[in-house]
Amino acid sequence: MGKFRKLEGKSEDLVLPPIRLNDLRPAPRITPNYRPQAAIIALVVFIPIMLTGLQMWKTAYLERDVQGVVSHVANGWVVGIGFVTSSKGNVRPTATVTLQADGMLMDYQTVLLTYGRSTPMHTGDAIVVTYRVGKSGRLYVDHVAPRAGIGR
């Protein structure tokens, strides 16, 4: 009976194990905390899914905006050409060309500053613009070509 102590003075004798200090402390946590890793994995999976969903929603919205809309052809002028630069001074490959046609200013995003493949685009050029006005009122430029007989 060396390991157990006996309680006396009760109607029945109880045998209890000896109390040790380590028995009163909570057991150390052996399992690692996976919360930071789970949060990172959730973000890595969730963010691309959200971005893909937003891109699909934007594409569907733009398609609905121009569905059944008539194209317009107008004569106009190239008002300005601008390049997007970053804070580090790097020029991005796309340019925003501002056009004026039918009394409206339109922005046209392009990679090449040419009409088709050969003629370069300059400020002040006379142009023919094919555009659509969406149901939301947004202008969509479909095609820009130089006006024959007028220009530089």
Question: How does this structure look, described?
Answer:
There is one protein chain. The protein contains two helices and nine strands. It has helices at 21-24, 35-66; strands at residues 5-7, 14-16, 71-85, 91-101, 104-110, 114-115, 119-120, 126-133, 139-146. It has a five-stranded antiparallel sheet, with no helix packed on it. Strands 1-2 form a two-stranded antiparallel sheet. The protein is elongated. 7% of the residues are buried.
Rounded radius of gyration (Å): 37 Å
In which order are the strands of the major sheet placed? 5-4-3-8-9
Proportion in β-strands: 35-45%
Q: What do the pLDDT scores average to?
A: 79
Main sheet makeup: 5 strands, antiparallel
Number of helices: 2
CATH topology heading of the domain at 71-146:
OB fold (Dihydrolipoamide Acetyltransferase, E2P)
* CATH architecture title of the domain at 71-146: Beta Barrel
Strand-and-helix sequence, N→C? EEHHEEEEEEE
Helical residue percent? Answer: 10-25%
General form: elongated
Structural class: alpha+beta
Task: Give the oligomer, counting copies of the same chain as homo and different chains as hetero.
Answer: single chain
Overview features:
152 residues; alpha+beta; OB fold (Dihydrolipoamide Acetyltransferase, E2P); five-stranded antiparallel beta sheet; two-stranded antiparallel ribbon; 24% helix
Short account of what is shown:
With 152 residues, the chain is α+β, with helices and mostly antiparallel strands. 24% of the residues lie in helices and 39% in strands.
